């Protein structure tokens, strides 16, 4: 073959076609396998959301950290081009999270104003004052665990321990009556699910709004020593600092984030420790702390898979992928937690001593980064630390009652958890 023929053949070869966007699985199944596939395509990947909505998922640790702190990135849904232009279907499962009026969807001065109203309730000192109450709740739940166990000794730890603890704490903090808690939990599961039908989403939105309006009216009539009463006082003293929709939106955000993520954190930590008894032995030997367990779980199997949404206010490049202004972007927290470029070739290994090794310590991003760093992070850490310490202290022989792979995931690519957690408590 002549050189001329070779040149012609090379020029005639068409360039490789770009890969189609990854279609997000709304069931959240095989989350970490999906994360590996996405990271293999790059640190920022075009994806298709339910309803055929175009988006981008950022899965690289370094890229996500920089993106979260980029001043050219907004959270207000007014920047969501497809929503603004009517290209998002009615009853879309992510509409409530994207459009709720509150701190997590505010930018700039509005965000600073709302965060300032809440920050005093979540200072490390204020959170530490909650320790005795959290310990009391944990103790009461642990006393009841054997009483609700089946005849074969198994008990659903999610239902009877991991769920009621953070739900009780956040509801007491907000002044929500106990009889409303189970219903609000069921509704919040719909709001963070990515599988419900449009009519389910619309009904859940209406009912949640009605319940929260009832909570606000109840606290107006009978104020207490709770955050809702304090916010109502601010609202009535100076309505310019907090609108009515911001008040109810803030309650919704605190309620959903304040219990759902901590619930998943406790469940995932128990699963990891049961699957890695050598790591549990290190904690018991004093080579690592329960806080190390919490932080390693947040990195290794954090409570949030992909969190919606952020929107570039101008076109920008993330990890070599160009993102147009107004495209919704998912923060891939669970994927970033196992990014080997940041956390090393053993990023997929659960290692509680990782948090104590200064040579490879890199903070996880499970609580976010930048101006929207999770305001409830100290409370989540405190609740999970106390819960795990007391649970394994009282039931040192605790083990999963089924294989971990048999545990059904929560049907969502937002919430990274399991629908149940059957365990055998063993001898107390």
Any key phrases for this structure?
428 residues, 3-stranded antiparallel beta sheet, 11 strands, disordered N terminus
Tell me the radius of gyration: 23 Å
Gap from first CA to last CA: 80 Å
How many helix segments?
A: 19
Q: What portion of residues belong to β-strands? A: 5-15%
Q: Strand order across the biggest sheet?
A: 1-2-3-9-6-4
What is the correct CATH architecture? Answer: Orthogonal Bundle
The CATH topology turns out to be: Cytochrome p450
Q: Report the helical percentage.
A: 40-55%
Tell me about the biggest sheet?
6 strands, mixed
Mean pLDDT across the residues is: 92
Overall CATH class: Mainly Alpha
Assembly type of the chains comes to single chain
Number of domains: 1
Let me know the number of strands. Answer: 11
Broad structural category: alpha+beta
**N-to-C series of helices and strands:** HEHEEHEHHHHHEHHHHHHHHEEEEHHHEE
Identify low-pLDDT runs: 1-11
């Amino acid at each position: 073959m002549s050189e001329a023929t070779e040149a012609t053949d090379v020029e005639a070869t068409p360039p490789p076609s770009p890969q189609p966007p990854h279609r997000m699985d709304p069931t959240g199944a095989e989350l970490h396998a999906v994360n590996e596939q996405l990271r293999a395509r790059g640190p920022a990947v075009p994806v298709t959301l339910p309803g055929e909505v175009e988006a981008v998922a950022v899965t690289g640790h370094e890229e996500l950290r920089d993106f979260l702190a980029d001043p050219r990135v907004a959270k207000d849904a007014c920047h969501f081009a497809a929503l603004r232009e009517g290209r998002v279907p009615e009853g879309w499962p992510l509409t409530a999270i994207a459009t709720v009026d509150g701190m997590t969807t505010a930018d700039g001065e509005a965000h600073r104003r709302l965060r300032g109203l809440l920050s005093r309730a979540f200072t490390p000192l204020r959170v530490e004052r909650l320790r005795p109450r959290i310990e009391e709740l944990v103790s009461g739940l642990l006393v009841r665990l054997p009483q609700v166990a089946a005849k074969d000794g198994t008990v659903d730890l999610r239902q009877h321990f991991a769920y009621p603890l953070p739900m009780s704490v956040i509801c007491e903090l907000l002044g929500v009556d106990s009889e409303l808690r189970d219903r609000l939990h069921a509704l919040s599961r719909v709001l963070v699910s990515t599988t419900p039908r449009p009519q389910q989403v619309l009904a859940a939105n209406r009912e949640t709004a009605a319940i929260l309006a009832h909570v606000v009216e109840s606290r107006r009539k009978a104020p207490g020593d709770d955050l809702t009463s304090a916010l109502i006082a601010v609202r009535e003293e100076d309505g310019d600092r907090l609108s009515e929709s911001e008040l109810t939106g803030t309650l919704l955000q605190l309620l959903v984030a304040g219990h759902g993520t901590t619930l998943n954190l406790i469940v995932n930590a128990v699963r990891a420790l049961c699957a890695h008894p050598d790591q549990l032995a290190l904690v018991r030997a004093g080579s690592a702390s329960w806080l190390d367990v919490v932080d390693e779980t947040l990195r290794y199997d954090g409570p949030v898979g992909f969190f919606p949404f952020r929107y570039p206010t101008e076109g920008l490049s993330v990890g070599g992928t160009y993102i147009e202004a107004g495209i919704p972007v998912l923060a891939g927290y669970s994927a970033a937690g196992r990014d080997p470029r940041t956390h090393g070739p053993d990023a997929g290994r659960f290692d509680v001593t990782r948090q104590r090794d200064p040579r490879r310590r890199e903070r996880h991003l499970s609580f976010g980064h930048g101006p929207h760093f999770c305001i409830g992070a100290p409370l989540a850490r405190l609740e999970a630390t106390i819960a795990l310490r007391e649970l394994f202290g009282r039931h040192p022989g605790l083990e999963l009652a089924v294989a971990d792979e048999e545990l059904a995931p929560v049907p969502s690519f937002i919430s990274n958890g399991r629908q149940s957690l059957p365990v055998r408590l063993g001898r107390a």
